Amino acid sequence: MLVDFAAAGGLHDCEQIVHADDSRFIERLGETGMHKKRLEQFRLNFSSPVFLAAAQQLKRDAAEAARITYEIHAVERGQWTHYYHCSDDGTRLSFRWEKPFAHACPTCGKVYTGEPYDAAWTSIVHVEIGKAVAQLGLLYIANPEREILQWIKIKLTTYADHYETYAIHGDIPYNGPGRLFAQTLDEAHWITDLALGFAVIQEHLTQKEARHIRQGLLEPCARFLIAYKEEQIHNHAVLITSAIGMLGILLENEEIILAGLDGAYGLLDQLNRGILEDGLWYEGNVQYHFYAFQSLLHFAMVAEGTPWDIWPNPAVKAMFDYPPHLLLPSGAMPTLNDTGPHSHIGTYAPNYEIAYAIYGDELYRNYLLTAYALTGAVKAKAWATRDSMYALMYGQNLSSGQNAEGSVDLIAEMQTTQSFIGSGLTKMANNDGWHVLIKHSRFGGEHDHMDRLGLSIVCGETPLLIDPGTTAYGIPTHYGWFKHTLAHNTVSIAGKDQPPRDGELIQLRTEPWGDWVESAVDWCGDDYRMKGRIILPEELKSWSQEAYEGVRIRRISLLADTHLLDVVEVQVPSLREVILANHFSGMLVDDEGWETTTVAIGERDQQWLKEKRRLAGRNGNLLFAMAEGYLQQLSWCSETSEVISALTPDNPPSTSRTSLFERVMASDRVWFVQALRYDRNELIAEGILTVECEADRVWRISVDLPDGKALYRLDWRGEKAALTRIQV
């Protein structure tokens, strides 16, 4: 299935969408700063048995928040919270209110002291206070106790007392500075939470209190954010401009509103130029998609019912529409680029409470039913509990709309093979639980991993060959290993990083004997979709344009019932070292034929490649013990090749996976063929892969396995490959 929302009347790159109009003025302000129907919905849901879990969770969060006794000082200086992680295993350090100068790793027990940890602790303090203001503000809607209001007042007025005295500081890579925090982004996060709390309680403040908070905190922060807006299309810019717009509405200041919404790199420009045709945020993964979305949603809460209401903007709905289609059969979201592992359908369920309330789309209702295991299916898995703040604010009756027109079976959707043309991702699934993801995406900027045509494979919930994503940015493994081509299941030239370039889907075919996809990328030019819209810091330009100039790569991945067949063609204009990497989430079963080597693989620091071994001769049949079961790799190469194995960082980086690097010196074309077979229970020993050249770029490929033989004919002479299965 090809998914092209643009062709179906969705977003187009050049389409101008819903801009602010200088001639319109604010009509609904001065009451609560949030639409009255949302506050009434919150009160009703808070007392409803349907949302009991959400009400109880908010009470617990609010009770925890009310215990915060930290006194906000005239001098506060936060640091980047990505530093608040163990440098050995990547685990986030344990935050303890009573231990501002001792920060323990809960995994290995190591205790960190001094900077940057103490100042990162300070940042976390203010993040927690910001969240507490928002949580207690919402609780006050349903439970208007004087103590709650007083707690919020004290925090907001104390920040207003001191905010302009905080020194501008911060040297975080590729980020503007902060006042309270070390980067503009964190300042925007924090003020958004405070603004949400202010929005719901401001009618209960005296005029003097409200004026002091506006003049001492909201407006100075808005002016600061305006001064450090990013001049690029970027998730940071979405958060910063959303915060500016939100503050402008609460300040009833049209100048500030327009500074956030309008003009080059304003919020509306971010939506217009940063969202791909099918609705995915251009940075190429769902985690950053929703990260950019979060503050936008908070802006929308305050803007609803004003001339700045953003819900009618088609880009907003498109951002809700995309993620459900990308869900893998396991319910997980793919791990791509700078994203952490373990996000799934339940992770983003709270956002779909908002989506269903605003748009009433059956897709969103079914997303929620599936996430909460309310579909009525036997043994349905619950990925989340309906206990979020957004469920209280926006939650609807999910039993209505049963069998409604346009209803979507999300479980079936998760198990459906489909390509996403705009975002450049193809997922394939079969009846045996395999799901395969091929990345032929657009270049995603600063958070890209330079891994066009990367491959990820999972069976059920067992990872086989996957993209590990990344860890906290302050951990050396992030910049040292995870962000580089060699760390992914794709091709590199001499182990160097791929330069920016957009991949291409050639075709997706569904046959009686399996689904297969053909994708391609080349470096016969240097253009890409986001060129000129984003800033690429010099420190991140680790690629080699010279090494890849004129290189073309094509990949065919076929998912049959019993195996995956993968064929890679690399064309180089002159003598180059071509490396195909495969990173197995398991360990080699048999050590026979391997000998220790010190050979360098690529130009990355070799500390990331441990226990390097060279395969003496070429054994095209390797077996790996996975977390569950066994994976067999049968492989072949058209040229004489060398295979090096190493243990490389997995995620978390305290764990390892087995990486194979097949190296070839090529001067024209080289072909790599591999067949993968997985068994959850038995040790696989037998299997033969045979590849014969029938004519120039025409191959007969035989995969002979214990459960049957498959024979294929691949003709790669045309613009599109012709792949057929021959009856044996």
UniProtKB/TrEMBL annotation:
<keyword id="KW-0732">Signal</keyword>
<protein>
    <recommendedName>
        <fullName>Heparinase II/III-like C-terminal domain-containing protein</fullName>
    </recommendedName>
</protein>
<dbReference type="InterPro" id="IPR012480">
    <property type="entry name" value="Hepar_II_III_C"/>
</dbReference>
<dbReference type="Pfam" id="PF07940">
    <property type="entry name" value="Hepar_II_III_C"/>
</dbReference>
<dbReference type="GO" id="GO:0042597">
    <property type="term" value="C:periplasmic space"/>
</dbReference>
<dbReference type="GO" id="GO:0016829">
    <property type="term" value="F:lyase activity"/>
</dbReference>
<keyword id="KW-0574">Periplasm</keyword>
<keyword id="KW-0456">Lyase</keyword>
<feature type="domain" description="Heparinase II/III-like C-terminal">
    <location>
        <begin position="420"/>
        <end position="501"/>
    </location>
</feature>
<dbReference type="InterPro" id="IPR008929">
    <property type="entry name" value="Chondroitin_lyas"/>
</dbReference>
